[in-house]
């Protein structure tokens, strides 16, 4: 028997490799790869392959919808989500199942089975000649713990190892990374690694919130009566951090003029409290953090190069959640759900089995707000579960929509011009009935996206 041919048209460079890894090797399917530059399956001639995996984003480049595609090619197509939530939301509520680009073998199997069964070419009991490797029973990968800091990915293990390594030295450390990645956790890890400074205070300062007029007093302190309102002596951050760690968060937001003043004091550790002629020696380890592009700011002249050299003897980069990979998202999401369930529930509440679509959402969503956002989404799901004792897909996906996505209001130009609400409702209803309530076909018939149809059905009480 000739090996089955599978067509892959999906931009992720390792997609085909991951596919091969999941598919049963004894069947050894032949994978035909298409990409941007090479010939692509846009022609109207039927394709050679027996099944295709095509990125949903490919559709946007052609004036066709997925049904037209499948009709022309005459083979079942598994659409691959780009990881963009809008695509996922739009398609997962319709009868089309979308495989997330970051799939695992279990989700591949589920999507494959669903697609082949509903394909006229293969049918319910069809022998397709392809199967997914049986899921090997494997223990969940261990989630490492450093206090309340959880991590698993190799890049995170390296980061933690480096934090300990350089933390033990008396060097200034700059921590770079996106918002919500856990920079403060890393700063504390660095501080705790030093044999001496770890025993002193950890003074955290948000540099984005320091008024220019109070800058010197806040950092270097003042003596009573040195200015109006100075009713008592004030030590300031430098002296507060003596023999410990001074953590300057959002250092990229420190105005240029304040950078000079800090640089002078950091160079020799000598400070002059406001209103005092006495110089005081301070001794601490400096750790700074930022999510701003300091290199670009230096080029643009908004961040001082000499100041950068002073604060960044060692640089640690905290990867975004997306860079850590889907496994880390999955493990952290479970841990965060467990934490929220315990926090919100009146009595002990075990983590329920999460439905496949929710796991896939976690796998494919990019979490631009990183771990902070992941904790927020997990908390929403935990609160929803405690209220409903189940996960209803449409409602949950709606709760998981980010604020920036405008989940509620589809774009106006996507909507046809209906003069009244009632008329629109009956149009939607008629179209649904005409298409046997198949959402993809109905959306096509109305000339809407599936997301728009879904939102309209919710609005008019037509969804389950
Ligand atoms: N790996 C992790 N394990 C557990 N909690 C984490 C992890 N990373 C971050 N968090 C939590 O996410 C939130 C944001 O973390 P943190 O404040 O350290 O981020 P940040 O990078 O300093 O963000 P920002 O740049 O916005 O200040 C905190 O509540 C923190 O406890």
UniProtKB/TrEMBL annotation:
<dbReference type="InterPro" id="IPR009057">
    <property type="entry name" value="Homeodomain-like_sf"/>
</dbReference>
<keyword id="KW-0067">ATP-binding</keyword>
<protein>
    <submittedName>
        <fullName>Sigma-54-dependent Fis family transcriptional regulator</fullName>
    </submittedName>
</protein>
<keyword id="KW-0238">DNA-binding</keyword>
<dbReference type="InterPro" id="IPR025943">
    <property type="entry name" value="Sigma_54_int_dom_ATP-bd_2"/>
</dbReference>
<dbReference type="InterPro" id="IPR002078">
    <property type="entry name" value="Sigma_54_int"/>
</dbReference>
<dbReference type="Pfam" id="PF02954">
    <property type="entry name" value="HTH_8"/>
</dbReference>
<dbReference type="InterPro" id="IPR027417">
    <property type="entry name" value="P-loop_NTPase"/>
</dbReference>
<dbReference type="Pfam" id="PF00158">
    <property type="entry name" value="Sigma54_activat"/>
</dbReference>
<dbReference type="InterPro" id="IPR003593">
    <property type="entry name" value="AAA+_ATPase"/>
</dbReference>
<dbReference type="InterPro" id="IPR025944">
    <property type="entry name" value="Sigma_54_int_dom_CS"/>
</dbReference>
<dbReference type="InterPro" id="IPR002197">
    <property type="entry name" value="HTH_Fis"/>
</dbReference>
<keyword id="KW-0804">Transcription</keyword>
<keyword id="KW-0805">Transcription regulation</keyword>
<keyword id="KW-0547">Nucleotide-binding</keyword>
<feature type="domain" description="Sigma-54 factor interaction">
    <location>
        <begin position="149"/>
        <end position="383"/>
    </location>
</feature>
